[in-house]
Specification:
The protein has three domains: 77 residues, Winged helix-like DNA-binding domain superfamily/Winged helix DNA-binding domain (Arc Repressor Mutant, subunit A, Orthogonal Bundle); 126 residues, Response regulator (Rossmann fold); 159 residues, Rossmann fold (3-Layer(aba) Sandwich). The chain is built from eleven helices and 14 strands. The strands form three sheets. Strands 4-3-5-6-7-13 form a six-stranded parallel sheet, with helices on one face. Strands 9-8-10-11-12-14 form a six-stranded mixed sheet, with helices on both faces. It has a two-stranded antiparallel ribbon with strand order 1-2. The radius of gyration is 25 Å and the shape is elongated.
Length: 392
Amino acid sequence: MSKLLQTVEFAPHWPVQGQIRKLVRRMVESGELEPGERLPSTQVLAKHWNTDVRTVHFAMLPLVRQGLLTRVSRVGTFVRRREAKLSRIAIYMKGEQFGAMDGPLHLALMAELQKLMRERDIQPDIWIDPRPLDERHMVWPALEQAIQERRIHALIVPQASPDIMSWIPGLSVPVAVFASGEDPFMVNLDNRQAAILGIQALRDQGCRSVSLMIGAKSRNALDPSGRTHALAPFLQQFDLSAEEAQLVTRSEWMMYYGPIPGTATSVDYEAFGYEAFRRLWSMPHRPDGLLLIDNVIAKGVIAAMLQLQVEPEQLKVVTTKLAHVRLFSPVPITCILVDDRAIAEALLTQVEKQFNGEPCQTIYVSPRMAAPHEGCVSPHPIQEMEALTASS
C-alpha cells in the first residue's frame, strides 16, 4: 500500500490543496516515496483525503512542473527519477512564427537561448509544431513521448497562445513560457514601463499630444480565453502617463491591429503601420508625438512618413525595438529597447529553478531607453558616399 494512503490529518484552517502539495513534496524529497513509484489515482487520493478530485489534481500540478512527479497519459502519476543535471531543454516553436509579426523576436530569443544553453553545457533541442491551428489545443503526442522517454528534461516556449496554454502547463517537466500572465512559470515584459518611458521621451522632446499604434486588438476586445487582451496593463498606463504629462490624446489617434494569432505576417504589420499613418496624417487635427509598439510596425510608418514628406519638426516618434535587431530609419526615431538576451536568461532561470525544486514566481523584464549607438541605423554612411561621388 502506498504511504500516501496512511492516515493524514489536515489542519482545518489552511487550504487543503497547499497541505497536500507540501505533504507529497516532503515524502518525495525524503525518499519515503521512491523514484519510479506509482502514486494512487487522483480519484483514490481524493476519496482517502475526503476532498475534491480537482483539489488533488491542482495540488500535484506544480510538483509535476518542478520535475518531482511525472504523469504518463492513461497510465498514472509516478515519482520521477530525476536527472543529476539539467542537460537537455526543448524549445517549442509554432511553424508559422517564422513568418509572423513576432518572428524576429522569437528568432532572436531562440538564438540567445541556444547561446546561453551552450555556455552552461545544456543541449538545446528545437521542436517546431507542424500541426494545423485547429489541432493545437491538444497535447502534441511526439513531444509528450519525448518527455516520457526522458529525452527532454525541460521545455521553453518563447511565445504562447491560448490554444497551446491549454496543455503546456500540464506537461511533466519544468516549463517556462514567455507570455503575458502571472503564472509562476512565466516570463513577461513590463509593458507598463514601456508606456512610461514612451510618454516621458515624447514629453522631453516638447510634444503636447500623442498618437498610439499597436499590434493588438482594440482596448475593449477579449482574447480567446475571455480575458482582456494581454496589453491591457500597457494601455492603462499609457492613459495614466499621458494624463500626468498633460499630453492630449484622441480616440481617433489610437490605432489597433489585432488579427487572429498565426494568420498575419511581418508584411501585414508593416502594411498596417503604413496605412494607419497615412490615415492619421490625413486627419484635420494631428498629434505632434507618436508612440509605436513594435519595430515591425515602425517600418511601415517610416515608409509613409517619407512618402508624405513629414518633417522632424512636425512629429516626434518613439518606438519599442529589440536590442539585437537593427532598424534602418532615414527619419529621427527614439528607441525603447526590449532586451532579448534578458528574456532568454529569465526563461532559462525559470526552468533551472523548477528543476532544482526551488519556488518560482513570474519574472518581469523591463525595457529601457536606447543609448545613441543602440537606436536606429541612420543613412549617414550613404549620404557620405553620395557626397564623395558628387565631389569626384
